[in-house]
Structures are given as structure tokens and as C-alpha cells.
Amino acid sequence: MTVLLFDIDGTLIDAAGAGGAALLAALWHEFNVSDPRPVQLHGRTDAGIVRELLLNHGVAATAENIQRIFSAYYKLLPAELVERAGTVLPGVQALLERLMTKPDCWVGLLTGNMPLSARLKLEHYGLWHYFRAGTYGDQALNRPELRDAALQMAGNMVGQPITGERVVVIGDTPLDIQLANAMQSKCLAVCTGGFDQLALRQAGATWVVPDLANTDEILQLLGSCIECKHPMKLANGTGE
User: Fold this and answer.
1) What percent of the chain has pLDDT over 90?
2) What's the pTM value of the predicted model, to 2 decimals?
3) Is residue 42 very low, low, confident or very high in pLDDT (cuts 50, 70, 90)?
4) Which residues make beta-bridge pairs with 207?
5) How many other CB atoms are there within 10 angstroms of residue 229's CB atom?
6) Rounded CA separation 3/150 (Å)
7) What is the pLDDT of residues 92-146, one digit of tens each?
8) How confident is the model over 170-197, as a mean pLDDT?
9) Half-sphere exposure of 85 (CA within 13 A, CB side)
10) pLDDT score for 227
11) Which of 2, 26, 5 is closest to 177 using CA atoms?
12) Phi, psi values for residue 95, rounded to 5°
């Protein structure tokens, strides 16, 4: 049994900047910042992004202020998703449909998005129903710190603790790869989020593909993991 954990932005969807626009609008709405400066978003957690955004504009990053930003963000995001007319990335829906037919494969999320923003985005693009569970950006300021939460979530999905060897991370940034390596998991990296093949290979991805459009190729790459006939290795080192 294998757990596949997907990133969202740049991996499953291109939201055409809707998330970043909604965050900057929330900053203006809540704290009257008339000319907000964007921060680096790629591969980061929403919790870390909002903290930096507040500090960069002279606003204390208190729990109350962070919650104010997120409350406004959740209200503003749906309209931005509609207005910016992003898209599901090539091959994503076909791949998810095929994975749903494999009883030895469990599909979840490993994303920097907050739980509600992840749901808003994926429901907008018709993808939410494919995912059994997720690890989200409310659980750490920095993406590599999601390691333990992701492994615990993966174990909860299958009903027993598992090691990172039974997990594959699918993402589009070096931070996705860094997290997979921290989990001792394999990583399928896609070049749909702004990083080229060289950058993703140098970051240590197990496999690098231009996108997820070739479903058969992707399944062939993942085949040794998905169709492994060996006993599943549990966290205590035993098999079943």
C-alpha cells in the first residue's frame, strides 16, 4: 500500500495568482495597507507567508492579527478564483481518476494552504472529492516542519503507522522535495509551478516530469511504489 501526497498550487492547479491577490487584499482590508508588497509564495506555508506579510508592513504578527487576515482571505478568495479564471493543470484529473481505481493506493494532500483555502480552491476546480485527508499550512511556519504531521496523517489514512518509504510526495518546488527527503519519501516533481527540470533534479527529486499529462508514464514511474508486493513496512520496523 502506498500513500500519494499532492501539493496544490503549481501541481494540481494554476489559480492564476488568486491566492496571493486575496492575501494582499485582506491586508488592505484589515490594516489599511494601501500599497502592499507581495512576498515569495512558492512552496511555503500560508502561516509563514501571512506572518512575513504582516511583519514586512509594520503590523505585529500576533495570533489575533493573523486570524484577521485569514478571516478576510477566506471571504475574498472565492471571488478571486472566479475573476482570475485559472485552470486544472494538464493530466491532473485523468491521473486522479486512474488512481481511484487502485485499491492499494491512498491519495491525500500535503500543502502549504490552510485547510479552508485548500478546500475552496479544490472545490472551485472540481477536485476536492479525490482526497481522503491532508496535511496543511496551519501546522507549521516552514514547509519542512510538516514532516511529522504528514507521516502521522498518512498513517491515519491507512489505519496504522507507516514510514516515509511508503509515501510519495508530488510537488512542484524544491521545498516539496526538501520535505519529501525529510520524510525519507520519494518525490515526483513537476515543472508546472515555475521551476525547471534542472532546479528540481538538483534539489533531489526522485523523478522529474514536465507535467502530469502522460498518465501512463506517470503510473509507470509510480508503479514500483503503488504495486509493491512486499509487506508494508510499519513505523516499528515490522511488516504485515
Assistant:
1) 80
2) 0.91
3) confident
4) 188
5) 5
6) 11
7) 999 999 999 998 899 999 999 999 999 999 999 999 999 989 999 998 888 888 9
8) 96
9) 0
10) 55
11) 5
12) -65, -45
Alpha-carbon gap, residue 47 to 24, rounded angstroms? 14
| Cell numbers at 48, concatenated | 509563514
Show the cell assigned to 233. Answer: 513496512
* Grid cell locating 60: 505585529
Residues 6+ apart with CB under 8 A from 51: 61, 66, 141
Cell matching residue 8 = 496544490
For residue 87, what is its C-alpha cell?
485552470
How many Å apart are CA 37 and CA 206, to the nearest integer? Answer: 35
Are 212 and 189 contacting, i.e. CB atoms less than 8 angstroms apart? no
Cell numbers placing 158: 491507512
Q: Has residue 183 got a pLDDT over 90?
A: yes
3-state SS string for the chain: CEEEEECCECCCEECCCHHHHHHHHHHHHHHCCCCCCCCCCCCCCHHHHHHHHHHHCCCCCCHHHHHHHHHHHHHHHHHHHHHHCCEECCCHHHHHHHHCCCCCEEEEEECCCCHHHHHHHHHHCCCHHHCCCEECCCCCCCHHHHHHHHHHHHHHHHCCCECHHHEEEEECCHHHHHHHHHCCCEEEEECCCCCCHHHHHHCCCCEEECCCCCHHHHHHHHHHHHCCCCCCEECCCCEC
62/40 Cα distance (integer angstroms): 21
Rg (CA), the chain: 18
